[in-house]
Amino acid sequence: xxxxxxxxxxxxxxxSYVRRRRPDAVPRLLEGLDxxxxxxxxxxxxxxxxxxxxxxxxxxxxxxxxxxxxIFQDPRVPYRLFFEAMAFHNxxxxxxxxxxxxxxxxxxxxxxxWLIRRFSRSxxxxxxxxxxxxxxxxxxxxxxHPTLNHxxxxxxxxxxxxxxxxxxSPPAQVVEEQCAFExxxxxxxxxxxxxxxxxxxLRGLFRGIxxxxxxxxxxxxxxxxxxxxxxxxxxxxMSRALAQExxxxxxxxxxxxxxxxFVDTQGSFLYxxxxxxxxxxxxxxxxxxxxxxxxxxxxxxxxxRQAEQAWQEDxxxxxxxxxxxxxxxRCADGSDKDVMFxxxxxxEGENFLLTEDITQSLADEERLKRSESLLRAVLEGSPxxxxxxxxxxxxxxxxxxxxxxxxxxxxxxxxxxxxxDRQAWGRSLWEWVLQGKVAREELELPLPNQGGxxxxxxxxxxxxxxxxxxxxxxxxxxHRLEKExxxxxxxxxxVELAGTAAHELNQPLTSLLASSEMMxxxxxxxxLKRQAQRIREDALRLANLVERFGRIVRYETKEYLPGRRIxxxxxxxxxxxxx
Length: 579
Hints:
Elements: E1 5-7, H1 8-21, H2 26-30, H3 33-37, H4 41-48, E2 54-56, H5 57-71, H6 77-88, H7 93-102, H8 105-119, E3 123-129, E4 135-142, H9 150-161, E5 173-178, E6 187-192, H10 198-206, H11 211-255, E7 259-264, E8 269-272, H12 274-280, H13 290-297, H14 301-316, E9 321-330, E10 336-347, E11 350-357, H15 359-381, E12 385-389, E13 395-398, H16 400-405, H17 423-434, E14 439-446, E15 453-462, E16 468-474, H18 476-521, H19 525-550, E17 557-561, E18 564-567, H20 569-578
Antiparallel strand pairs: 1-2, 3-4, 4-6, 5-6, 7-8, 7-11, 9-10, 10-11, 12-13, 12-16, 14-15, 15-16, 17-18
Helix pairs in contact: 1-5, 1-6, 6-9, 6-11, 18-19
């Protein structure tokens, strides 16, 4: 999409209008436009104040928006500033003679389509219908561009309305019948002006307009109209705001759970909302004033005296926002409620009173305190070290056992409690826990009070609210017992294996010894051979036993003597033999 350009006559009109009325706002009007134009601020103001250059259309429309919304807060500013620019601009001798020769707005409008086609960069098409000596209908279609909006229609209307001034006639009346920026195919303006006589024609031809006098009259008229519009709009806004505030007040007071009442200086209740009646059960007729209210709400004279004294102190303090007080109130059904009262000044001669039933809140708070006390006692009595950390891994709380093991002061980083060689491990563990996972680890820590190192079982859990609970259980003694058990088990196996060896090897060794002794007694070769054969068989039995010992693959025992067991060599080696 091409970027249309517009004459700096239009930007000059905006700057002149703002400079005459709000000279201090000119810098705000031009702020940032130098970056759009690629110029320095001084050159930017000089260019935009010139009457015969060309700049992007978006610059002009942004200036219109700022003047309308930021500086004057007036939706009719585009109309007024272009009216003045067209009425009081010095067009030069040739253009002035051309306009005077036209003789009337009707003649000028007959030439307008050609002028628009020749000079306008934003209007696509312009035509006139129902043209008479005192009025016509104007039709405009705009070129498609996102910066064009209804402000451009207003500038067009302001310029057209000033046309009769060039012949000494009053301004024209221009009414917008439809706008192209509100979904219509074209903008339609209805224009009417005062009919001109020959005397007015001749005077306008030779003398033109008294610009100074006209400017004064138009400024006065515009300012008066603007003040009337502002007052009318302000009145409408105030009426709407008042009605809206009344609706909000009614909706608020009738739907909130807090009791609300308004009290005058004599202590009479001006208003009580439904929540207050529901809270205490008293009808509106029963609480006409504070005296009756206190007699019903505080049967105890001492409590009634304290409540009355508190009200007088609050009202006599002169503070707009007062503190809160809590009293026990007797309700219509005979029950008692703990109620928090807040009082303050509503307006001259009127005060407000807010009541909140906190009976359940106080009961819950008391239960919470008891629970916290019980949990604290359990936590402090626990033999495990327990630490509560925030999301920054800083200690919020540590029980007695944790302080004995670690110097866990509140606010101290938990990673500083670890030995230096374990801090990298601690950071990895912390990242794991922050992901919502439960961490179970064994950790070796020094024992300051006992000396040496202790082994702890660490459990870390991430709770809701960004809290992390770490539990450290001392399992040093359990580790020691486990080692003792394993050593005892190994010793038992050795004893059982020794018993098995003694049992299994005893018989062949005994036979071997007997055979060797018998050989010493015999002289015959046959007897010696027979004993040698026995020795050989006993040696083979020993070799077989040794081989079976080497093939033990599982632990199987049998009772050897009452209360004593040895390894069952047959079962212990059976699996290997089967394979």
